[in-house]
What we know:
With about 400 residues, the chain is α/β, with parallel strands linked by helices. It folds into two domains: about 5-175 and about 360-370, Rossmann fold; about 190-350, Glycogen Phosphorylase B (Rossmann fold). The protein has 15 helices and 13 strands. The strands form two sheets. It has a seven-stranded parallel sheet with strand order 3-2-1-4-5-6-7, sandwiched between helices. Strands 10-9-8-11-12-13 form a six-stranded parallel sheet, with helices on both faces. α6 links the parallel β6 (about 150-155) and β7. It is globular and about 60 Å long.
Amino acid sequence: xxxxxxxxxxxxxxxxxxxxxxxxxxxxxxxxxxxxxxxxxxxxxxxxxxxxxxxxxxxxxxxxxxxxxxxxxxxxxxxxxxxxxxxxxxxxxxxxxxxxxxxxxxxxxxxxxxxxxxxxxxxxxxxxxxxxxxxxxxxxxxxxxxxxxxxxxxxxxxxxxxxxxxxxxxxxxxxxxxxxxxxxxxxxxxxxxxxxxxxxxxxxxxxxxxxxxxxxxxxxxxxxxxxxxxxxxxxxxxxxxxxxxxxxxxxxxxxxxxxxxxxxxxxxxxxxxxxxxxxxxxxxxxxxxxxxxxxxxxxxxxxxxxxxxxxxxxxxxxxxxxxxxxxxxxxxxxxxxxxxxxxxxxxxxxxxxxxxxxxxxxxxxxxxxxxxxxxxxxxxxxxxxxxxx
Length: 389
């Protein structure tokens, strides 16, 4: 009997980090054959050609789909989706997977899911049902859920929401957050080893900062970053590790502002294009908190008992642990959030943090479902009406 071919598509360094243990589990399962497709930021020199990290981890990249134009405008991103549709149409014909696995809500994933749906290839979607009200990701995530046949969600609230979208309950699986598997299974670096790897000395206080564009609010990304940098500039004793923003609209504007800030503070600030999962999580472990608007501040940081400052509305609607401090995208609000992050009361409460995204094991649960679930007639979807409707 032929092994079931599971094609995992990844378009960014952060997404691959979440998919790593799932890919390992698929590859090690005797009943499954792993296929890997790299696209989006993975193939861009600007973002570090991170598909090479996938290969260095021992995976074979079966196909590469160039789709990311050198533009962070709405026109450029829309054209990138179009290029992705063309490229993936050929990939499905070449690889003929039994299931395509996608994670999240980025525009690359919209191209993957749309082309797979039209090619009648079953789709398994991870981290559906979540909400991020100030980002175009919100619409993409729910659209991909409606194209997918299998759903692996991170919390009970998200399971209910996918069912509310009309997806049959028997195809919606509560597995928890994928990122927590990294925390449980990866060997994190000591403070000294991290400093050597980063070529950057940590200070008496340290922050990890990631700020992505707010894609549904016109011309506000640069203003919000300006407010953040103004608040950070006041903390002379704090060393800051910045990670690069995503390739979304206005991403280059944010990048230029971060580069200017780092140039003005060479001793206490450094910008990284790609940290990788081990260094990223090691940074979380050895920093005092995570600042910005990245989902990792909500999903992974609580499992390391670290505080997070969540700026603005990009993650609005997502479940949050008590360790997450919400604030407005203004210097005064960010300043107040930083004061709370370092307060004795807040720090004392961190060891009691409970992560709403679970305690690990998501990767293995997904592998078992992909291995065992019947595929006969799975592409035919029915709309599930909630009881009483």
